Predict the 3D structure of the following.
Amino acid sequence: MYVGRFAPTTSGPLHLGSLLAAVASYLDARSHDGQWLLRLDDIDEPRTRSNAEKIALTTLELHGLEWDGIIGRQTDHRDQYWDAIEELRKKDLVFYCTCSRKKLRNTSTYPGYCRTRRTAPREPASIRVRVQDEEIAFTDRIQGTVKGNLSHMEGDFIVMRKESIVAYPLAVIVDDDVTGVTDVVRGADLLENTLVQIFLIQTLDLTLPRYAHIPVLNQRDGIKLSKRDQAFAIDNRVPLLNLVSALHMLGMDPSEQYQDVHALLAWATEQWNIQNVPNEVAISDFMSI
Ligand code: GLU
Ligand code: ZN
């Protein structure tokens, strides 16, 4: 059984890039007769905007993207995050890090200063996972073979921030595991981070999902669209137009005139072939709508 999901962060309204991820994951799930779950990535409470959640749900509904079952939330998985950290601790893979941002300013790979600190200090500390010097590889359904060595990338990575907020790679693998997700379809900005996630999945003996990373949308200057770019927030008044644009960017050709989003999505589900999605990590020259 195929179980897919869309997992927007509730720090702002959905933008065109998020709609692309929503549509791609929806079509892939529906064309496999699978389930499509909705999870609100709301663990970073200081960054959560109270109305973002409502706007995201309205956007999905207006675009005909109907999810299955109840809405999931990261804030429901807090115990499971700590269970996972406890498992990592039992394997002697975690340590407490008190390095300041300033101390790490000039390096993109964690230099290992706190690697041997196994007990919690008095001051606030983040929890990091010790990585190995080994290559991790996976086959992405869109991007092909992806590989890298974590010790040459970000190095020992954070799983729990100083403020006791779980870090994304640990959160996402626990969330997907708890909800039985078999297929992850999301933006290629997370391609590298997927290697960190795979390391965690293998270490914790969880089941590896299949991955498909769709291109992210960049502004013309090459900067990724983000929640801060209010100008690119989805215009909920024109859902049909938004969907047509999204489908074009996913390599489809919705040339016929559809009356409503449901008919258009039904057509797209029928036509969906993930091989037609451009195997690029970014599209810079898209039309803003
Ligand atoms: N909330 C994450 C994001 O919006 C989810 C990423 C994922 O699909 O794993 O970037
Ligand atoms: Zn440190």
